[in-house]
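ARCHIVE CARD
CATEGORY: sequence design from structure
SOURCE FIELD: tokenized fold
FIELD CONTENT:
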């Protein structure tokens, strides 16, 4: 299991060097279901994009997946200790693809407002290609524990891809607003038939410093 996880993460690192190829994969990425056993006291949870080769009848297919692990467990010390049990602490989620221009209407099942969540989802397929051309492609999303609910069994969760507007300081007097990849958490209460949207995701890279990068231990392993 450890070898397979590292191979899939390495596939992402290799493919993202080809900006055209990785943009084609990301443009149709829509959402993934989140099934994580329970909270473990972590301040946040890490989501790593990866690429899995799926055997097809005629040829292999590249499938975008996401690996989820708590910040508390995403350390070299912990992962080295549990090398034979990575499948118990790292969850794999298959990303559901939606072809460009389809399935993006107001009836999509997608704590920001529903209107803002849908606007961000709409921008994803339209803007992610241009963003990839100008930026280093991300390796991980860091989401705070407040975005999740692991206690209520009536609540299901999904991660939805979107583009949000962020302010970037240019010099000392000007702040530019740019679009940045986003991961929106949708919580659906099956009993109350209500939905809520949460978004405090941090994107990496860029890494603020070496210590910050070392917090993401999965990036330190090599096949």
């Amino acid at each position: 299991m450890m070898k397979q996880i590292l191979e899939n993460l390495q596939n992402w690192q290799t493919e993202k060097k080809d900006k055209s190829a990785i943009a084609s994969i990301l443009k149709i990425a829509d959402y993934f279901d989140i099934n994580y056993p329970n909270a473990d006291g972590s301040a946040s949870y890490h989501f790593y994009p990866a690429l899995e080769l799926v055997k097809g009848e005629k040829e292999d297919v590249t499938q975008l997946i996401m690996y989820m692990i708590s910040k508390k467990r995403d350390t070299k010390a912990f992962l080295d200790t549990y090398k034979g049990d990575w499948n118990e602490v790292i969850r794999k989620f298959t990303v559901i693809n939606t072809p460009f221009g389809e399935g993006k209407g107001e009836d999509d099942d997608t704590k920001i407002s529903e209107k803002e969540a849908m606007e961000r989802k709409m921008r994803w397929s339209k803007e992610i290609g241009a963003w990839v051309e100008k930026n280093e492609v991300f390796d991980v999303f860091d989401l705070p524990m407040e975005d999740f609910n692991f206690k209520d069994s009536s609540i299901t969760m999904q991660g939805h891809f979107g583009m949000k507007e962020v302010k970037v300081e240019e010099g000392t007097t000007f702040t530019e607003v740019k679009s940045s990849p986003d991961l929106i958490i949708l919580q659906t209460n099956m009993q109350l038939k209500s939905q809520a949207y949460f978004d405090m995701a941090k994107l990496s890279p860029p890494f603020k410093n070496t210590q910050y990068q070392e917090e993401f231990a999965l990036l330190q392993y090599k096949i």
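CARD ANNOTATION: The two ends are 12 Å apart (CA to CA). The first helix runs from residue 2 to 15.
SHELF: design records, drawer C
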